[in-house]
Design brief:
This is DDB1- and CUL4-associated factor 11. This protein is 14% helix and 27% strand. The protein has 12 helices and 33 strands. The protein has a 4-stranded antiparallel sheet with strand order 6-33-32-31, with no helix packed on it.
Amino acid sequence: MTVNGHAQFFFFSHFCKQHGGCRSGPASGLIPQRAVKPAALGGDHLVAVGVAPDTSCSPGTDPRRAGPTRCREDRQTHGPPQSMGSQSSSGMSGGRSSSSDNPAERSEAAEPNRSRRTADRQSSAAAPSSEAAPSSAAAAAGAPEEDVDLAEVLAYLLRRGQVRLVHGSGATGLQLVQSYSDSDEDSDGAWEGRLGDRYNPPVDTQPDTHEVDLSEIRTQILLATASSTQKGRQGFTHMLAEREKGRCKGSSFSHGECSRIRTHFLPNHVSHKDTYQQKAFCGVYSEEGNMFLSACQDQNIRLYDTTKGRFKLLRTVRARDVGWSVLDVCFTPDAQHVLYSSWSDYIHLCSIDGDSENHTSLDLNPDERRFCVFSLAASTDGKEILGGANDGCLYVFDLEQNKRTLKIDAHEDDVNAVAFADGSSQLLFSGSDDALCKVWDRRTLREDRPQPVGELAGHRDGITFIHSKGDARYLISNSKDQSIKLWDVRKFSPKEGLAASRLAVTQQNWDYRWQQVPQRGEEGGSYERKTEEEPLRRHKLTGDTSVMTYRGHGVLHTLIRSRFSPEFTTGQRFIYSGCSTGKIVIYDVLTGTVVSRLSGHDACVRDVSWHPYEDTIISSSWDGAVRMWEHRQTHPLEEERERD
């Protein structure tokens, strides 16, 4: 393996520079536990490998914000952005260089979700070890960085088993990953589930449907699928027989009946795909479904033509001011512009049809030196942009006034997800690593007194994504506690529920980015069993007001996303989610059961998007693949016979 001249292999020298010598940890010997981040190796050269500095903060630093990226004192200060015309063709030049040009910070953000409690746990994880690296003496003696033999350090780590080279395809063609096990066993527990299907997410075989059976959403979905008296999906052959008997309204199926029929033909086969050399982070259909937008860790945003079942690359836009990766993208309502965010003080706006080299920087003017917007949403009228950031705040940027109009101190931890409740753009949803969903009224928001309309508590760990049903009443939240919850915003959680959720969060003693899900019954675990033969216990926290809980997918490594299925084709009968095992998992909203699992990726599926008017799903995975799924029936009515 050769180290490319443009690559930065800095972890040993950078760590010694920060601490004046080598430190050790129980698992790494040379470095703090869980410090090495996964790094993609394109071809035969190293792209980036890094170790975060020690998490102990300098005097005056807020201990809640202690962490690899919040305690850096050598970070360059952000300067004013240069004009777009002065930027280089790569799009990476300009005054905002610290988050995009500094390779140390790119690698330190290997999963950009820097939760404060995770940082606190990491800061207390280091312990002495008896073995030192070959180059540690020289480094401790003040040897220059360039004198460190990087190849020798890498060979040392490989020899000790602290890192592995893993072969695959696409973005996983070759990866350098750390071994995390604290034991001497050969098996690496934290690695299981990172690639392939080794982690088996627990499934609730007997979902509690009491609340959803009494809810309004059940009536809405049954009416939308012409199933007012049917809880389950009615057989397709039975529907055909009813039509032939003249028992359908008119001479053909109604729209609701068509939606019910389409629930029998869910996507199950890959029809198109594209492969990148690095991780695909997010992808979304336009409102009309004629375009698909994909963002990759290679800093490229790709636009595809998806009309009439096509999947043709139209344009590739080089993102600007990118720190580590583009983390979220979305269309403006008119589908004429694209919004994207990264580790940067700015949200960027780029034209689709016009000059794609002209990017407008929307300055959020945050107080944090190390800042990132994890989630974006555009209002229906296209006037305002909503963002959730790592400083626990919600940001509202007014495009007409060209300035930030609101900064709301919303949560106690990173805001990983934001959404507008409906087309009015007045109600806002936010989800955070504090495990709470909050509802905000845009008309009464004040920076000096930020008060949510209500709070929704029931998760045991941080929230990775939220999605609104679009009626300002129901939303879903995906969580690191390996569950999705359905909420009714008219049923807020009491104080006891908020307290129970906060307590559950403090009891989580694992890092979802690098470790396995805690075993059932362990302290801080998400699931409980009295015996292995007993079904998964549906233990709800005190004050949990969720309507339904869905389990059967894995939430590891990154902020995995879940959504409602489209109203036009399915009546929003389903919830579909990415999964850390490389699958797409589809749930029935009303029964809580898993109705389909789509396998085809070699790494976690971070994002999924269902065409608003067609029966296709596009998945974006960390294996570098973007795949379009559609229904293919090789034997007529074979699937129907299996269901019947």
